[in-house]
């Protein structure tokens, strides 16, 4: 009896070791950055913001009535300039893009679009960053997919490139067109 | 006095000259920005982060405090936008049980192991002596009353020992 108990005590460190090894092994190579996805699956936040083009106030009712990609950008944001050509390519392929011009000077933003091209059907001027906060934004650029019921379905942090398009955005948009949304995660 | 005045000025300057209606609101603000984590820099709280989004969230916290919202209301505001992730003090619920209960459980396990071990040792020492051992004990005790530190005596008394 005592002997058995002794053996059992020797097992404890081994079990702890195995547990830790499994835990750490499963996290190997996984991006440690936690992406806050709290607004995914929720209705698009209400807003009342001027459009960048003409200053007319826009609300949720002015958003497209079909699935669209919403991109948060600023002329001050270096990574936005890096992903901009890809957004232009998406727009040429018929993807509906809504821009949120985040904490920017309208004149600087307009000059930026003049220079690099304008892929967006509308641009909301979020100069104070309130819409950004309601979207659970952590910085720019960030990209969302909003479905036809104006529910947020996907939140991507950082630059949009071909791999993000192929693995995240396109599957989500395709499945929303069919009416599911199973490709959005 | 001067140092104190300087320190106060510095705190105000770091927060962009925030003014509060009451000292309770000021403490509330500082408590909350200590508790919330910066969603951009991940290993800093709002108070310790200079990321633009942290500035915004500090500003928002300030506004909510000024509007007289409670801690819980402000926490809810942050959590609906950034998830439980935002708080360094997550609530206790099934998904956070591991986080909350593993350390005390490990401590309890350790204590239990230690207690068991101690009891085991005690068990060994209180086991009744064999006749041989009681005889030797008697010899040692008798001997010690005459001359406690005499090794020869011990040697002499060892014929039955191992």
UniProtKB/TrEMBL annotation, chain A:
Keyword Lipid biosynthesis: no
Protein name, per record: DsbE family thiol:disulfide interchange protein
Organism name: Aquirhabdus parva
CDD domains recorded: TlpA_like_DsbE (cd03010)
Pfam families: Redoxin (PF08534)
InterPro entries: Periplasmic_diS_OxRdtase_DsbE, Redoxin, Thioredoxin-like_sf, Thioredoxin_CS, Thioredoxin_domain, Thioredoxin_ResA/DsbE_sf
UniProt keyword terms in alphabetical order: Cytochrome c-type biogenesis, Disulfide bond, Redox-active center
Gene Ontology MF annotations: disulfide oxidoreductase activity
Cell location: Cell inner membrane
Membrane topology recorded in Swiss-Prot or TrEMBL: Single-pass membrane protein
Keyword Disulfide bond (UniProt): yes
Protein origin, superkingdom: Bacteria
Domain Thioredoxin: 38-178
Any one of the GO CC terms: outer membrane-bounded periplasmic space
GO biological processes: cytochrome complex assembly
SUPFAM superfamilies membership: Thioredoxin-like (SSF52833)
Family: Belongs to the thioredoxin family. DsbE subfamily.
